[in-house]
Structures are given as C-alpha cells and as structure tokens.
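Quick one: structure tokens for this chain, please?
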Amino acid sequence: MTSPAAIMGVAVLTLGATGMAFADEQPRKRVQIASTDRADFAPGGLIRFANSAGDVIVEAWNRPEVEVTVLKWIDHEFAPEQIAGATQRLQAVSVNMEHPSAEELRISIVAAHVRPFGRKRRVEIKYHIYAPRDSRIEIDHRGGYILLSGLTGDIDVVSRRGDILLMLPNPTSYAIDARNRFGIVTPDFAGTTKHKYIIGEQFTRDHQPLAHHMRLRVGFAGITIKEVPPEGEAPASTSVK
C-alpha cells in the first residue's frame, strides 16, 4: 500500500519538473512588418485599390503628396524557432504600389504560394493613407474595414464584406448610390431608402448640379455616411499601430 508521504513526494517532484519546463521556455513574440512610402500626388488624382484585403484608412490632408503606410502581421504569438517561418509568410504576401504618374496610385496584393498557417494565423494587412483632399478613390476589396475621412472627390467602393464608414465634410454635395445585400445603410441626412429581401438596403440621393459621385456596394456589412466639420492638416509623418 502506498503511503500518503510517498504520494506527496511524487506530486512535489512533478510540480518541480513542470516549473523547470516553464523556466526554460523562451518568450513568444508577435511578428509584423511595416513600411511607409511617400510620393508627389496631384490634386484630384486617382487612388485605386485592386484585389485588396484588410483594413483601409484614407485620410485627407492639404498637401500635394500621398503617404502610404502598410502594416502586415499575424495575430499569433510565435516561439523563437518559429519567427523565421512567420517572417517568411509575411514577406510572401506583398503589397504592390504602382505610381505611373503624379495623378494615379495603384495598390494591389500579390500572395506567393506558401503553406498557410490556418485560419487563426492568416496574414492581416492594414493600409493607412494620407492624400490630397479632392483625391478620387476606387476600391475593389475582398474584405475588411474601410474608413474614408475628410475627402471631397469621387468615391467608388465595392467590398465583399466589412463595414464602410465615410466621414466627409460635405456628403450632401454627392449623388449617392449605396447598397448592401445583408446589413443597413445609415446616412446622416435625408435621401431615399429601399429595403431589399428584408436583409439588404439601398440608399440614394440625387444632387443637381452633380458635383461628385459616390457609389458603394457591400455584400455583408453596414454602410455609414456621416457629415463632419472639415479637419485640419494631418501630421507630417505617420505610423500605424
């Protein structure tokens, strides 16, 4: 028959071994890559996102240039021996920026064929852009949150999923056609609202003369259009956290 003292001794040895294992374990870290590019950009120029994914933030400033900060990360903590592989995974997903002229900027994603980590370890991307106030925006988006702030140029956004928030100094100057298949459209002002199949909504507003156009299409998420006072000039340099 095993004595209580012997049982306690085994328990103490087990706890001691576990404590040694925790002491030897190296701290786990998150992996991310950030880059910032800046170029001259003419007023009224076109910023076009093609096949993009992730969070997109475009803010207006009073400068004849565009600043683009891209942050890539994996929402997971890695052991030291996994850091190199995680970094390789981030580098395999590249964000291409083409600037064919001072009036156009094209942004797209190119992902190399690598073994994925899985759903919880996918590469996340965030774009933070400062652009002239009257820049035109075209976004063809696979999914993610989109925020457009302080802009006055034409806006055309198509997204499969993810909320869209527009905070504009004069949204009532736009001819607006905003629709989603599943969700609601929430404007700050009057217009015509129609419901589609109970779960979708369309909001339109005509303006004469038509100064600018706004076309929004979302598959699964909400659209919010808010009128805000004109903002001051954005900082000279930025960083995405």
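Helices lie at 4-24, 83-92.
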